[in-house]
Amino acid sequence: VPADDAKVTALEDLYRPGIKLAIGSEDVPVGSYTREVLAKLGAANAKKVLANVRSNEPDVKGVVGKLTQGAVDAGFVYVTDVEATKGALTAIELPADISPEVAYGVAVVKGAKHPEAAQKFVDGLLDGAGHDALEAAGFSFP
Amino acid sequence: MAFRAATAAALAAALAFLTVPIVAVFANTSPGKLVDSLGDGAARDALWLSLQTSLAALAIIVVVGTPAAYALATRAFRGRALVLTLIELPLVLPPAVAGIALLAALGPKGLFPTDALVLQTAGVVVALTFVAAPFYVRQAIAAFAAVDANLLRASRTLGAGEAATFARVAIPTARPGLAAGLALAWGRALGEFGATLMFAGSFRGITQTVPLAIYDRFSDDFPGALALSAVLVCVSAALLLTVKLAGGDRELALR
How far is A27 from chain B (nearest CA, A)? Predict the structure, then answer.
């Protein structure tokens, strides 16, 4: 939600008619995660939330843009996107039982031309400077 | 002889380059698919919305743009070149810039803050008007400037007022040029994507025009995207042809 003038302060606020929402379109990752979360709220609640949707954006940047410009009251984005706005947006914590697991993998490609350099890069992401940068950006590690 | 062959070759190359992608849209779409895509409710909503919003934008453009173009074409004043440049500027703006600019001007946190346009059908009309208007106004200025000044003077000496001269002499004489500008503006409005998405968002039946619906299908329903593209090509071509014929465009006739 926008950090200033937040009309939505809890998940339940999304059920209220009149609240304006932007979410990802059904066929992009952020949109399908969003629908996963909504499904866990129960069909009746999901319906109330979807009734408030004013825009199905083709990517998460669109949702973030609509939020920072104040076009909508709330949107579903990744926590890393909230961090990236440097305070323009505030995250509302989702209960752990409905949070989707959004996992990113990293690996060295089989037959890579420079497997050692690639492995070093991977190691750097999991431990070291890359690890710190990812953590600062809001990612967590398994 | 060699020059004629060279120009003919250039024409063939231009024709092939410009038509092959359009042919490909139809080559990959069976007529059955085309009809099926029209049966899809979201596609029909998008077509209907595109038609409504582009017509609304066109009405605004013609009503305001025609007299404005007439003023620019018939009056000399200081800063005329600047005004012309400002009016034509949206022509060369990338759509993303147009979208950002509209948000900065008329968004909820804009220069003139309002909630009435963003994510609303009216916002789509504003976006279409912004990007399409210069196409019409530019052409209309050229068309009015090409009207023989003696015709206008004759009309005035015969007792017609300025308004009557504009309506009964200037407009009919400039009609082919105005129609060509109208066709270009309409085509641009129908194809508008970036500014609409950034300013008005994408929601079925409210702000999701055909280009946005095509992009929505792009990732998971490529055949559907193609079919809808084919429909848009047909509609645009039909509009272009109709407006050109109605305007009595002489370029279409064989000389």
Answer: 7
By C-alpha distance, which of B62, B83, B45 is closest to B129?
B62
Q: Closest CB to A70: pick one of B108, B204, B216.
A: B108
Sign (positive or negative) of CA dihedral B122, B128, B134, B136: negative
pLDDT tens-digit map of B122-135: 999 999 999 999 99
At B195-241, the pLDDT tens digits run: 999 999 899 989 999 999 998 888 778 888 888 888 888 888 888 78
Distance from CA of B145 to the nearest CA of A (A): 42
B10: part of which helix (H) or strand (E)?
helix B2-27
Q: Which helix (H) or strand (E) holds A53?
A: strand A53-57
Asked if the Cβ–Cβ distance from A55 to B201 is below 8 Å, we say yes
Classify B123 in phi/psi space as left (phi over 0), alpha (psi -120 to 50) or beta. alpha
| Statement: the pTM of the whole predicted model exceeds 0.90 | no
CB contact under 8 A, B198 and A62: yes
Distance CA B145, CA B148 (A): 8
* Distance from the B208 Cα atom to the nearest Cα atom in chain A, whole angstroms: 9
Of A28, A56, A65, the CB nearest to B203: A56
